[in-house]
Amino acid sequence: MERIKIITIFGTRPEAIKMAPLVKELEGRNEIDNKVCVTAQHREMLDQVLNLFNISPDYDLNIMKNKQSLTGITTKVLEGLKEIFEKEKPNLILVHGDTTTTFAGALAAFYQKIKVGHVEAGLRTHNKYFPFPEEMNRKLTGAIADLHFAPTVGAKANLLSEGITEKDIFVTGNTVIDAMEFTVDNEYIFENKELNSIDYKNKKVIMVTAHRRENWGKGIENICIALKKIVEDNKDVELIYLVHLNPIVKDVVYKYLGREERVHLFPPLDTKETHNLMNKCFMVMTDSGGLQEEAPHLGKPVLVLRDVTERPEAINAGTVKLVGTDVDEILKQANLLINNPEEYEKMKKAINPYGDGNASCRIADAILYYYGFMEDRPEEFKLM
Hints:
The protein has 16 helices and 13 strands. Helix 9 packs parallel to helix 10. Strand 1, helix 1 and strand 2 form a beta-alpha-beta unit. By secondary structure, it is α/β, with parallel strands linked by helices.
């Protein structure tokens, strides 16, 4: 067989972070001709990751516009990819996770009977509106996909329960752990001077992100009320909140926390700065999916500010606690970690269930195996 022609598609910063190490791995495989297509569902934050990993897309749909809708994103991706697929005629496209770019990319490939590989397949909350629209994006992508690269055995079990054939599922670990091998430096100096001035050694610095759609309104308000109280009650705590640029989030955060001592509000940082801030902080409080995987790799406990999570492995492993958006519950669990060294050490030392830094290699091997370039099925990621 000739070289396998692949188009790797992503459009947001979280996707780019997790696909970048895979792009680099595919570039090093002689049997694979990989091209990169970005939709730019998120423009500026996506470009930060492309620059960090020195990736120059072969195609850029550049679809982002102010107040874009899910319908608008979907139709633009479908239309843009149609022309690219007709020109390139790939053997396989790769999409990641659960964004609208992911689902629309898989659907566009299906319309032209092109095979689909789904990276980070099998995550489920089993509630189609939480998170919205991500839960249905990943389920619908899973229904279309031919190859399923599940990060964990739990994700594999979800796929099997939905009727996916076991031979088409490969447990690989999560590529975000691969990405951190490129980004984390224990001697890192931040570009932002204020971040460098914070006393990470003698203060308990809590890194916060909270911006998910299901938390808009009362959820974000409760989170901010709880954060304010945590800082007031614990004089050794400093808070760093990376505030999403969406006014629905930003206005609430600045209303409650804008004038608080020992609270530092920053716009979202680029990937390298974010990973190294995580590495220096005491713990993480977030509603992000990716941080639930990244922070435990660095030994940082995570309190998840959501009512449900599609990443139950972290809860079972003890690296993460699901605390929701109830003010009293957030306070209870945060103060427990701040003031109880035994509880903190228990979470800090729990083994990260999401990977060992070799997920991209496993995915590339699985593709070569699927297309007959390797005789033996690749060994799967197993939690030690």
